Amino acid sequence: MVSLDDIRREQKISPTDNQGFVANLAKEQAKEYLRKHHPFVWNATNLTSAMRQQLISLFEAYKARVNIIYLETDWQTLLDRNRSREDAVPQSAIESMLGKLTPPEVHETAQVDWISV
Description:
single chain; alpha/beta; two-stranded parallel sheet; 5 helices
């Protein structure tokens, strides 16, 4: 699994800091898996189609099969789960992210699953 949260913890980078370094490390980890044709999960919040398309293009350039799994929950459950996280995200950041969210659409890749959790 390539986890941006894990990279932030390892590198001691706050979720509210610039995420460019985190994203670059994650892409390098993904490329290692892709070169070896090892399956992996990209575990990160990709809010927009444009963000997802950059990753999908990278993965498909290595001939990887790409599936999007979109997880959604109600607001109160989201807040409760966030509070119980080791590295909780500030509610203001969550609200900002929600304002930018564009859920994935079926045409973005070969398979898109929407799951309510």
